[in-house]
Structure formats: structure tokens, C-alpha cells
Design brief:
about 210 residues, alpha/beta, 8-stranded mixed β-sheet, about 20% strand
Length: about 210
């Protein structure tokens, strides 16, 4: 089931700022408190993989992200990712970190959340996924307050010190200021990538298609 397909500017990850085609799939197994795409939990249309690929190719950009919802809930997602790779695209899959990421093709860039306490879903983190991450994959913490930040900092120090993947710290939009999170990172000398959701600053009034 596909919720929406659109062309936009990549707002997060180390690919931030690049033109990107997005395939948002339907359904999620989590209910994060700050979710900004709750409509994707239910809304969607059945669509064959060749049609999805054709729509993505019509955007004429090299980068594509499969997101949700939670894309790994759909068993066809690895096949879609493989088809997009074979079409010459750089494929990102953004996942909430609660499901097995090994199902995805090797060349996919996996952007995997580690849910912080304020999400309400911290207990759903699938820690086994850490051993599956490749150097080109990315780990994202969405941080809503100081408690989240300290949890993420300690997770970074205890669990991620030998993980080669990039680590991203992102503030919950309109809850924690980017300036405050940046100051915490600088004070603790953390080797992480600070990010703010660029698409929300470009199109502050839009809630879909960005």
C-alpha cells in the first residue's frame, strides 16, 4: 500500500538538501508521540512495483527514499528497493528500528531510528539491528527534551562506540530548539551530526508532500 509519492528536497540525514523522490508507504507498528505523518497509518492505495518505479523515474532525480509509516511492515519493500537500485537510483530506507533491517538489499542506505524515552516507544528498539549496520547506514535520534538527550548521549557512548555508521541528532520540531540541542552537543563534544528538519523550515505550512 502506497500513501503518497512526491518529489521534494531531502530534509534530513547526511543527504540533506538534495532533490529526492519519496515513496511513503502505509502502516506503522509504533505510535510515536510526535509523529508528523499519522495519516500514513491508514491512508493508501495498492500499487504494483513497476508503476511505483515509473513514477519515481518520472521525477528525474537520482536519490529516492522509501519511508512511512514503517516501510518494513510490507513484505514487498525489499523488492521495491531492489527494483529502484536496478533502475540506477541511490535508495534510502527510513525505518523506526523495531523490525529486522537485514531484509533489505545490501546497497540500500538504512536510516534507522533509535527511539528516545519521550517518543513513548523506547522499549520497542530492536538492539540486534546495531550489529547489522554498515558504514554507509545512519542512526537517528529524535530528541524532545533533556532526558532524551542524556539517554541518546549514554546510548552513543555505551552501545555505539564501535558502530561505524553516522549518528544523527534531531530536535522534535516546535518542541526543542535547534540552538539548545546544538549547545548540548558542543558542550559534551559529541561526534554526531546535528540536523534540523530542513523541509519544515522551507515549507512550514505544508504537512504532506514535503
Amino acid at each position: 500500500m502506497v500513501c503518497e509519492i512526491f518529489k521534494s528536497i531531502q530534509g534530513e540525514s547526511s543527504f540533506v538538501g538534495l532533490p529526492c523522490s519519496f515513496v511513503r508507504l502505509t502502516g506503522c507498528n509504533l505510535a510515536c508521540r510526535y509523529c508528523d505523518s499519522t495519516y500514513a497509518r491508514e491512508e493508501g492505495t495498492p500499487m504494483e512495483i513497476p508503476i511505483i518505479v515509473d513514477m519515481v523515474l518520472s521525477h528525474n532525480v537520482r536519490l529516492v527514499e522509501i519511508t512511512g509509516g514503517e516501510p518494513l511492515l510490507q513484505p514487498e519493500t525489499p523488492l521495491l528497493a531492489q527494483a529502484l537500485l536496478e533502475a540506477g537510483r541511490v535508495v534510502l530506507v527510513e525505518t523506526n528500528g523495531s523490525l529486522d533491517i537485514s531484509l533489505l538489499p545490501e546497497r540500500v542506505v538504512r536510516i534507522m531510528d533509535l527511539k528516545c524515552p519521550s517518543s513513548g516507544e523506547c522499549h520497542r528498539n530492536r538492539w540486534e539491528n546495531l550489529a547489522l549496520l554498515m558504514p554507509y547506514d545512519e542512526i537517528k535520534f529524535v530528541i524532545g527534551d533533556r532526558i532524551d538527550y542524556e539517554w541518546a548521549r549514554e546510548t552513543l557512548r555505551r552501545r555505539l562506540k564501535d558502530i561505524p555508521s553516522a549518528v544523527l541528532f534531531s530536535p522534535v520540531h516546535n518542541e526543542l530548539s535547534a540552538a539548545e540541542l546544538a549547545q548540548w552537543i558542543l558542550s559534551d563534544n559529541l561526534e554526531v551530526r546535528m540536523q534540523a528538519p530542513l523541509h519544515k523550515y522551507i515549507w512550514p505550512e505544508k504537512t504532506r508532500g514535503v
